[in-house]
Amino acid sequence: MTDSETKTYVVHLYREVRVSFYGIRATSDEDAASRARLLRTDRGEISHSDTTDFCALVDSEDDDDLTASRVITFEDGRLRDVAPKLMDALLDIKLLAQKHADNGFDPYYLLEEIEQKALATLAKAKGGAQ
Predict the structure, then answer these.
(1) Which of 84-91's residues contact partners 24+ apart within 8 Å by CB, and which partners?
(2) How many structural domains does the chain have?
(3) Global pTM?
């Protein structure tokens, strides 16, 4: 690839990192965690190991009005986004099973359908659908 074939970009990476705050005085561990949440990230010590990248906002440097900005969601971001949907699905499954059990039906016949729906949801998240 030659320089004439490339563009210059500004990439804003959304990453989960471990930030350690030392010396927080608090009445309990929950209080300490709450106090740490109020602190600016640059007041802590950032660990650069074991980070997780969720997504990136990519802008072309020559795109002054930001109309060509694009969000690229990575697998970990897609999996994080699908978690609430899976929790809702599990609650629906529980309610459906209870309904069928109350009517004298065996809810276990639903397991194959439930498994297929859960696997399809995970496959969509892992496959890159944005």
Answers:
(1) 85/121, 86/118, 86/121, 86/122, 89/117, 89/118, 89/121
(2) 2
(3) 0.59
